[in-house]
From TrEMBL:
GO molecular function, one term: oxidoreductase activity
Keyword Nuclease: no
Pfam families per the UniProt record, alphabetical: adh_short
Source organism: Methylocella silvestris (strain DSM 15510 / CIP 108128 / LMG 27833 / NCIMB 13906 / BL2)
Database matches in Gene3D superfamilies: NAD(P)-binding Rossmann-like Domain (3.40.50.720)
Protein name: Short-chain dehydrogenase/reductase SDR
Lineage: Bacteria, Pseudomonadati, Pseudomonadota, Alphaproteobacteria, Hyphomicrobiales
Ranges annotated as spanning the membrane: none
Family: Belongs to the short-chain dehydrogenases/reductases (SDR) family.
Top-level lineage group: Bacteria
Keywords: Oxidoreductase
InterPro entries: NAD(P)-bd_dom_sf (IPR036291), SDR_fam (IPR002347)
Keyword Oxidoreductase set for record: yes
PANTHER family per record: NADP-DEPENDENT 3-HYDROXY ACID DEHYDROGENASE YDFG, VERY-LONG-CHAIN 3-OXOOACYL-COA REDUCTASE
């Protein structure tokens, strides 16, 4: 089967939920797929289904992205396979308990997956795509990146890292043919809650979006050239105002003397 003219989309965390939905939508658009996750059986089943449904090429690549050696295996493929034109950095895990009640080893695992693996693959994609003059990077963050006080501090911190990384890399690849997006979903109906010992049904239904709607909105934002997409946000001007207020701080974030309000002479 010939390769797609759009190239191949590498999707992490592709065996279920948001990742599997991205795989479906991208295959429908005509992308070939390289699907990455730990569950080889589910990956192979999904790859076969999408290849048969959409007439594209779909390959499963089993990898545990909490293992740095496995991350480097995916990175190597990303750097060396000229057909890969899009990275969807989706793999991640959520919190199980509060920080005070939590298992610190589990939190380390969360950082390995949500930060270290995401960073490694995002940077590899940015470097590779910039050299080629073509490519796209979609990093899945979370609205918790903006509301740390209301959520688990380590989880929201990992998602704030993803947002910051995306914004910074976008500046570096400007004019090099690389399109970058951070997606900040709210509560989304996926297996991530059950895996962390909770249920999505514990939340008001009005706050929970189906994965299909979330991905469709996010891809619409990607098509429109949004750097930051918040699928549930009704007014884009609210984000623009928030971002403008943030950047307005820049001239006063670093001076050679303390601000007069501290009374330090």
């Amino acid at each position: 089967m010939s390769r797609s003219s759009l190239g191949t989309a590498l999707v992490t965390g592709a065996s279920s939920g948001i990742g599997a939905t991205y795989a479906d939508r991208l295959a429908k658009r005509g992308y070939d797929l390289l699907l990455v996750a730990r569950d080889a059986a589910r990956l192979n089943t999904l790859a076969e289904k999408l290849a048969a449904t959409y007439g594209i090429k779909a390959e499963a690549l089993q990898a545990d992205l909490t293992n740095r050696g496995e991350v480097r295996k995916v990175e190597k493929r990303l750097r060396e396979d000229d057909a890969i034109t899009l990275l969807v950095n989706n793999a991640g895990i959520s919190s199980r308990t509060t920080i005070l009640e939590g298992d610190i080893d589990y939190l380390d695992t969360m950082i390995e997956l949500n930060v270290v693996a995401v960073n490694r693959l995002c940077v590899a994609a940015a470097q590779t795509f910039a050299k080629r003059g073509r490519g796209g990077i979609i990093n899945i963050a979370s609205v918790t990146a903006l509301l740390a006080e209301r959520f688990h501090g380590v989880y929201s911190g990992t998602k704030a890292f993803v947002l910051n990384l995306t914004q910074a890399i976008n500046t570096e690849v400007a004019g090099k043919g690389v399109k970058v997006q951070a997606v900040l979903p709210g509560l989304t109906r996926t297996e991530i809650f059950e895996r962390s010992g909770r249920s999505i049904d514990d939340f008001p239904p009005s706050m929970v979006m189906d994965a299909g709607d979330m991905v469709d909105a996010s891809l619409a934002g990607f098509d429109q050239g949004e750097l930051v997409t918040i699928p549930s946000l009704p007014n884009a001007a609210d984000w623009s105002a928030f971002d403008a207020a943030r950047t307005a701080l820049a001239p006063n974030l670093s001076h050679n003397v303390p601000a007069p309000r501290y009374g330090v002479s």
